[in-house]
Amino acid sequence: MNVQSDWWDHFFEGVSVDLWLRALAPEESKREADVLESGLAVPPGAQLLDVPSGGGRLSLTLRGAIA
């Protein structure tokens, strides 16, 4: 099996990710991020590890909420 060593660099790009990022309204992302923030009890200024599984819809929303 041939796998490029930097496969992860462009894995979450393209039409499917773009469509998913636009599939939900920003208000829905905000609601979901609020649930994560309160459930994790994230303090202001905390650093979180984003384990990629898409285009960063919730990570970007959380970043704005706790930055």
Summarize this entry quickly.
The protein is mainly α and 67 residues long. The protein is 51% helix and 0% strand. 6% of the residues are buried.
Features:
single chain; mainly alpha; 67 residues; 0% strand
Please tell me about this protein's structure.
Helices cover 51% and strands 0% of the residues. The protein contains three helices and no strands. The longest helix has 15 residues, at 26-40. The protein is flat, with a radius of gyration of 14 Å. The mean pLDDT is 81.
Strand content: under 5%
Radius of gyration: 14 Å
Distance between the termini: 42 Å
Secondary-structure-based class equals mainly alpha
The percent range for helix content is 40-55%
Task: Give the overall shape, derived from the CA principal axes.
Answer: flat
Number of strands: 0
What is the element layout, followed by pairings?
Elements: H1 15-23, H2 26-40, H3 57-66
